[in-house]
Write a structure and sequence with these properties.
Number of helices: 8
CATH topology of the largest domain: D-amino Acid Aminotransferase, Chain A, domain 2
Low-confidence stretches: none
Oligomer: single chain
Mean pLDDT: 96
CATH architecture of the largest domain: Alpha-Beta Barrel
Number of domains: 2
Bound molecules: 4'-deoxy-4'-aminopyridoxal-5'-phosphate
Enzyme class: transferase
Cofactor: pyridoxal 5'-phosphate
Distance between the termini: 24 Å
Largest sheet: 9 strands, mixed
Number of strands: 16
GO cellular component, one term: cytosol
CATH superfamily of the largest domain: D-amino Acid Aminotransferase, subunit A, domain 2
EC number: 2.6.1.42
Shape: globular
Keywords: Amino-acid biosynthesis, Aminotransferase, Branched-chain amino acid biosynthesis, Pyridoxal phosphate, Transferase
Strand content: 25-35%
Radius of gyration: 19 Å
Length: 294
């Protein structure tokens, strides 16, 4: 059976799911989106993802014609129709169909799409051995431009950094902000560990406040590990004891080499391992149930 995709209140087999070529999401990247995970019949932190989506929409003055509760139902119903228990969910809300000008007033109805599919993961080896990453020359767009806190459809900045990672033959790239401080990676947040303390850049460094990032901070605090949100440069990354990334798709993944510098012992460190384990525990009972009868 083909995947069923939600488009504006209806479900279509993926081959027949369509939006207009005049959609401003397509023409201008005018819209917001979310990437969400379901684990064993539960959607991890769905409310937080929906809040982030609606906050982004508010910031760009896009009125989503569904209540948050209705949007939650869209996600759950799409998963049920596809009989998925473990999934990656892509929710997209664009400005909708307009004309060729960029004026959003010409777009009368937002486009809402929900795609649910099986998750494609990094190979196990990467979790066991850790990743090598590089620093991209492309900088994070400053909060005064398209604010990175918003998961907007404008991902070109991140894509350019991803191309740099591809050219270097590594899976991820570190992105600095315009003031030379570490912000995040192309699709993940970053953490370093120094003397037993976990450090991650603060919101004002210019980054997406990851739902996984928040979950990891919580997990660390539950373990009694101190977490600090503060600005740091590449030097602090190079000289850290450990480094790891977090994101919905990657969960938490160790980093062992940055710009050719070996981090710590060059293998996933004890704090990272503890966090990975705690995160796995956290996802077991956290989240909205897909199948109400369970
Ligand atoms: N930063 C960026 C730029 C991202 O695209 C993502 C993935 N959504 C993240 C961080 C991690 O966020 P989350 O944990 O909510 O997936």
């Amino acid at each position: 059976m083909s995947i069923q995709v939600y488009v504006n209140g209806e479900y279509f087999p993926k081959e027949e799911a369509r939006i207009s070529v005049f959609d401003h999401g397509f023409l201008y990247g005018d819209g917001v989106f979310e990437g969400i995970r379901a684990y064993d019949g539960r959607v991890f932190r769905l409310k937080e993802h929906i809040d982030r989506l609606y906050n982004g929409a508010r910031a760009i003055m896009l009125d989503i014609p569904l209540t948050k509760q209705q949007m939650i139902e869209v996600v759950l119903e799409t998963l049920r129709r596809n009989q998925l228990r473990d999934a990656y969910i892509r929710l997209v809300v664009s400005r909708g169909e307009g004309d060729l000008g960029l004026d959003p007033r010409k777009c009368h109805k937002p486009t809402i799409v929900c795609i649910t599919d099986k998750i494609v993961l990094y190979p196990d080896k990467m979790y066991e051995e850790g990743l090598e990453i590089i620093t991209a020359a492309t900088r994070r767009n400053p909060p005064e431009a398209v604010n990175p806190q918003m998961k907007s459809l404008n991902y070109l900045n991140n894509i350019m950094a991803k191309i740099e990672a591809n050219l270097a033959g590594v899976p991820e790239a570190l992105i600095l902000n315009v003031d030379n401080y570490v912000a995040e990676c192309t699709g993940d947040n970053i953490f370093i560990v120094k003397n037993g303390v976990i450090i991650t850049p603060p919101t004002y460094a210019g980054l997406l406040i990851g739902i996984t990032r928040n979950a990891i901070i919580e997990a660390a605090q539950n373990l009694g590990i101190k977490v600090e949100e503060k600005l740091f440069t590449r030097y602090e990354v190079y000289t850290a004891d450990e480094c790891f990334l977090s994101g919905t798709a990657a969960e938490a993944i160790p980093v062992v080499k940055v710009d050719g510098r070996v981090i710590g012992e060059g293998k996933p460190g004890p704090v990272t391992k503890q966090i990975l384990k705690a995160f796995k525990e956290l996802i077991k009972n956290d989240g909205e149930k897909i199948y109400l009868e369970e």
